[in-house]
Write a structure and sequence with these properties.
The protein is mainly beta. The chain has one domain: Jelly Rolls (Sandwich). It contains 2 helices and 9 strands; from the N terminus they run αβββββαββββ. Strands 3, 4, 5, 6, 7, 8 and 9 form a 7-stranded antiparallel beta sheet that branches. It has a two-stranded antiparallel ribbon with strand order 1-2.
C-alpha cells in the first residue's frame, strides 16, 4: 500500500466571517483504531445530515475515538483498511480478536455470523464504499463479489464482511444513519 500519510490526508473546508472559503483542517485522520498495514478505522468527519450547519466553525468534527456507526441523523466519513488474516491463525483466535476489535469501536452487538466470516456484521446505515487501493472481496450471506480499485459498493444495511487479497486493502466509506432526514 502507498504511504498512508499521503493516501489518508484530510482537507476540510469552511468559511471565514466574510463568507470566503478556507481550509480548516489539512492533515491525517483525526482518530484511529489500528495500523494502516494491519487494518483498522481512520476517521475523517462526522456531521449532522439535515438542517443548517455552521460553515465558519473551525471545530474538527473528525472523531478522536472511532465508532463503527454514525450517530442518529448523522453522516460519517472514514477510511478503513482490511488486511489478510495472519497465515495459520486458528479460526477461534481470529474470531476472538475480531470480537475485541468490534467492542473497541462500540459495535460488538453488530457482529452477525462469525462462522461465515469472522467480521461479518450488519449496521443500520446506508454506506457508500469505494475501494481505493488493493484488492478485496465483499462477503454477503450467500454470495461474494471480488473488487478492484475504483469499484463502489452501496451497502444498504445488510450483513457483510471483507476479505483483502495479497496485502491490505484501503477503502473510503460514507456511512449515513438510516434515520437521517
Amino acid at each position: 500500500m502507498a504511504d498512508s500519510s499521503e493516501a489518508m490526508r484530510r482537507v476540510i473546508t469552511g468559511e471565514d466571517g466574510q463568507g470566503r472559503s478556507l481550509v480548516i483542517v489539512d492533515g491525517p485522520p483525526s482518530g484511529e483504531i489500528g495500523d494502516p498495514a494491519l487494518g483498522g478505522l481512520f476517521e475523517i468527519w462526522h456531521e449532522a445530515v439535515g438542517g443548517a450547519f455552521d460553515k465558519t466553525s473551525t471545530i474538527d468534527l473528525g472523531e478522536t475515538k472511532p465508532l463503527l456507526s454514525p450517530g442518529g441523523g448523522k453522516v460519517k466519513v472514514r477510511w478503513f483498511v482490511i488486511a489478510p488474516p495472519p497465515e495459520g491463525a486458528p479460526p477461534e483466535l481470529v474470531k476472538q480478536v475480531v470480537r475485541q476489535r468490534f467492542a473497541d469501536f462500540g459495535a460488538a452487538h453488530e457482529l452477525t455470523d462469525q462462522d461465515r466470516h469472522p467480521a461479518m456484521h450488519k449496521t443500520e446505515t446506508i454506506d457508500i464504499i469505494c475501494l481505493i487501493q488493493g484488492e478485496a472481496t465483499l462477503v454477503l450471506d450467500h454470495e461474494e463479489r471480488r473488487l478492484k480499485p475504483g469499484n463502489i459498493v452501496i451497502q444498504r444495511g445488510t450483513s457483510h464482511g471483507w476479505i483483502a487479497h495479497g496485502g491490505p486493502a484501503l477503502f473510503l466509506a460514507v456511512l449515513i444513519d438510516r434515520n437521517a432526514p
